[in-house]
Amino acid sequence: MWKTRRAEAEGKPKQPRTAIRPLRLSRDRTYWRETFEAYWYLLPAFLVLGAFVFYPFFSAFKLSLFKWNSLTPPGDFIGFENYRYIFHDKYFWKDMWHTFYYVGITIPVTLTLAILVATLLNKGLRALAFARTSFFLSYISPIVAMVMVWRWMYNTDYGLINYFLSLFHIDAVAWLNDPHYALPAVIILSVWHYVGYQAIILLAGMQNIEQQYYDAAKVDGATGFQTWWSVTVPLLSPQIFFVFIISLIGSFKVFTEVYVLFNGPGPLRSAETLVYYIIRSAGRIDTATNHTGRAAAASVVLFGIIFLFTIIQLTLTQKRVHYD
Amino acid sequence: MRGLGQEQSLVTTRTESYYVARRRAYRVFLYVIMFAGCAIMLFPFFWMVTTSFKTELEAMRMPPQWIPGKWLWQNYPAALARAPFGRYFFNSFFISILSTIGEVFTTILAAYAFAKMKFFGKNFLFALLLGTMMIPGEMLLVPNYVTLVRLNWFDHYQGLIIPWLASVFGIFLLRQFFRSLPDELWDSARIDGCRRFRYLWTVIVPLSKPAILTVALLKFLGSWNAFQWVLLMTNTQSMRTIPVGLLTFSSDIGTEYQLLMAASVVAIVPILILFFFTQKQFIQGVARTGIK
C-alpha cells in the first residue's frame, strides 16, 4: 500500500509489473535506504541499551551458575549450586518476607490515600496549584535528603513522631532500634514519599473523564458518593491499575529507603530486603561476603517475581480494566 | 397528626438557603481536609528547614522548639565545610547535565525512527524495547558492576554517565509525540531539498519542545536523585554525588542534626528551583506517564 502512495507522492509513474524483479526482496530501494538510515538513528540508544540492559540481562543468568568470589578470575561452573545456597539461606527467606510485608502494606495504603487525595483535588477547590505542589514535593525531592529528616523525626528521645505520640499518651517507640518497628518506619516514610506521585497520575486520569458521564449520573439522580463509586472509580480503573502495577514492581525493589534510614539493614537485619540481599551478596556493602554468583542468583529470583507481575498486568489489562 | 406537622415543617425549612449553607459547610470541610493533608506532606520540609537554623541545644529540646530563637545562618557554611560538598555538587551537576543532554540526543533519534520511518525489523526492535520494561534495573546491578570493573569505568565518570544515556521510557514518550505531528511537514521539507537529519533537528525538534523538555526534566531529576547506582559504582569520596555524600556526612557528624538538616536543604534546593520554574511540564510529565 504505502509503496504506491509514496510513488504517487514523488510523482513517479507506477512501475509496470514485470516478471523479473532481481534483488528486490519484495520491497523497493527507498525502503532499504530508509532502513539503513533508521539504523543509524537507533544506533546510539541501542548501543547503550545493548551494553547495559540486554547484555547484563543474559549475563545475570550466566553468572548465577558460576562460583565467583572476586571479579577478575572467571570462576568455576557450579550449576545450580548458588540457587541451592540462597534457597537454604535463612536470611534470603527473611529478606523475602520483609519485602513482601513491605509491599503488602505500602501499596494498598498508598493507593487508597492517593485515590482519596486525587478525588479531593478534583473537587474544583481553590488553591489547587498549592495543594498539588505540596503533595508532589515529597516525590521530586532527593530521597536521601528526605530520609534524613525522617531519621531525625524517628529519633527515640528527640524525635517529633514520639513527641506527637506522647500528646496522645502513647509511650515512646524506638522506631529505628526496635526490630518490630523498623519496617513500619520504612513503610510510613514510603507512603509519604509516593502518595503525591500516585495522586498526580490519578488526578490527571480523573480530569480526563468526560463530563457527559457525570451529566448522565446527575440526570439519574445519583448522589455524590454514588457518582464517585460508579462513574469515577470504574472510569479511572486503567490509571488505578497502572499505578498499582508500577508501584508494586517499584516497591519490590526497595533498597534506598532502608539503607539510608538505618545506614545498614536495620536492627538485627530486621528491615533487610531482597535487593539489599543482592547488593550485600555482591560484596558491595560489607566486603566480607563477596559472592557474585549468589547475588546473580538472587537477581534472577527478583526478575522472576517481577516478570510474574508483569504477565499478570498484561493479561489483566486486556480483560478486566474498563477503557471507555 | 403531630407527625404530619413535623414533616411539613421539615419541608418548609429546607429552603434554598439551607442547601446553600449545607454546600458551604461541605466545602469548608473539604478545605480543612485538603489543608490538613498539605500540612502533613509539607511538615517534614518545615521541620528540616527550621532545624537547620537552630543551635544543637534547640534542636534537641523536648517539647520541641518550633521556631529557632535566633536564625543561625552560620550552620550552612559550618555544615558545608565539614565534607567536600563543593566536589559533590560539581559531580552531581556534571553527571546530571551530561547524562540529560546525552539521553535527550539518543532519545530524539530513536524516537523519530520509530515514529516516522519505515524500516526492516521495526516491530521486532520495538518489541525488544517494550520487553526491557520488564527487566528490573536491580537485576542488572551485579553484571553491570562486573562490566564497569572490566572496562575500568568503575569509580569513573564514564561509569556514572554512559550506562544512563538511553531511556526506553523517554523513547516511548517522544515517539508518541512525534507520531502526532503531520507527515505533510516532511513532504514539504523534502520538496525543498531538506535532508532528513536536518529536518529532524530544524523542524521536528522545535515543534516538540514541551515533550522534549519533559523528558529532559524527568532525566535530570532522576539523575540528581540517583543513589543506588552511585553508591555501588563508586568507591572514592571525590566521585560521589550529593545524595551519597549526604549519607557519608550523616554518619560522620553524629548528633549534630542541625548540620545534617542544613546539608539536606542544600541538596534539595537545586531541584526545588528547577521545579518552580518548570512546574507545568514537570507535573504534566509525571501525569502523562499514567495516560496511555
Short description:
The complex is a heterodimer of chains A (324) and B (292). Chain A is 69% helix and 1% strand. Chain A is an all-alpha fold and 324 residues long.
Task: List descriptors.
heterodimer; A: 324 residues; mainly alpha; MetI-like fold; 2 domains; 13 helices; 1% strand; disordered N terminus; B: 292 residues; 16 helices; 74% helix
Question: How is the secondary structure organized here?
Answer:
The complex is a heterodimer of chains A (324) and B (292).
Chain A: H1 2-9, H2 29-63, E1 66-67, E2 76-77, H3 81-87, H4 90-121, H5 128-140, H6 143-153, H7 160-167, H8 179-207, H9 211-219, H10 224-252, H11 256-262, H12 274-281, H13 292-319
Chain B: H1 2-13, H2 16-52, H3 56-60, H4 75-81, H5 85-116, H6 122-132, H7 141-151, H8 157-161, H9 168-179, H10 184-191, H11 196-207, H12 209-225, H13 228-233, H14 242-252, H15 257-277, H16 279-288
Helix pairs in contact in B: 2-15, 4-15, 5-9, 5-12, 12-16, 14-15
What is the CATH homology-level superfamily of the largest domain in chain B?
A: MetI-like
What CATH calls the topology of the largest domain in chain B is MetI-like fold
Shape of chain B: flat
Low-confidence stretches of chain B: 1-6
**Helices and strands of chain A: which structural class?**
mainly alpha
CATH topological fold name of the largest domain in chain A: MetI-like fold
Strand sequence of the main sheet of chain A, in spatial order?
A: 1-2
Look at the structure and give the mean pLDDT of chain A.
86
Uncertain runs of chain A are: 1-10
**Gyration radius of chain A, rounded:** 27 Å
Provide the β-strand percentage band of chain B: under 5%
Radius of gyration of CA atoms of chain B, rounded to a whole number: 27 Å
Structural class of chain B: mainly alpha
What is the helix content of chain B?
over 70%
